[in-house]
Specification:
Layout (H helix, E strand, L loop, with lengths): L2 E4 L5 E2 L4 E6 L4 E5 L4 E6 L2 H4 L3 H4 L8 E5 L2 H5 L5 H14 L9
Antiparallel strand pairs: 1-3, 2-5, 3-4, 5-6
C-alpha cells in the first residue's frame, strides 16, 4: 500500500460502502466496511507514512476506528474461520485470481 485516503471523522456509511481509498503500485480501490456505522477516529500517521499499513498492520498501521450502528445484528452475518476461507477461495476462482509460489 502506497497511499490511503480516509473519509473524515463522524462520516457515516452503510455496510459494504467504502470508508477509504487504498492505492498500491498497480491498483486503486475502495476499503469497504464490514459493518455500518460512523468513523470515530482515523490514523493521522498514515498521511505522511501510509506504508505503516504494510509494516505494522496490527499496531501503528491501523486505518480507522469504527463506531458501529448495529453491531449485534450485522456481526452475525460476518464469515469467520473456515467459512471465510472458503468464501474467499470461491471469489478468487470466480475472478480467475491465482497465486504462484516463488521458486
Amino acid at each position: 500500500i502506497l497511499y490511503v485516503t480516509i473519509k473524515k471523522v463522524r462520516k457515516s456509511f452503510a455496510r459494504g460502502k467504502s470508508a477509504a481509498t487504498i492505492e498500491t503500485e498497480k491498483w486503486v480501490g475502495p476499503l469497504p466496511m464490514p459493518l455500518s456505522g460512523e468513523i470515530a477516529e482515523v490514523n493521522g500517521e498514515l498521511k505522511s507514512n501510509p506504508t505503516l499499513i504494510n509494516q505494522e498492520p496490527y499496531k501503528a498501521g491501523w486505518i480507522l476506528k469504527l463506531r458501529p450502528n448495529q453491531p449485534a445484528e450485522e456481526m452475525k452475518e460476518l464469515l469467520t474461520g473456515q467459512a471465510a476461507i472458503e468464501a474467499y477461495r470461491k471469489k478468487m476462482e470466480a475472478e480467475n485470481i491465482t497465486c504462484e509460489e516463488e521458486a
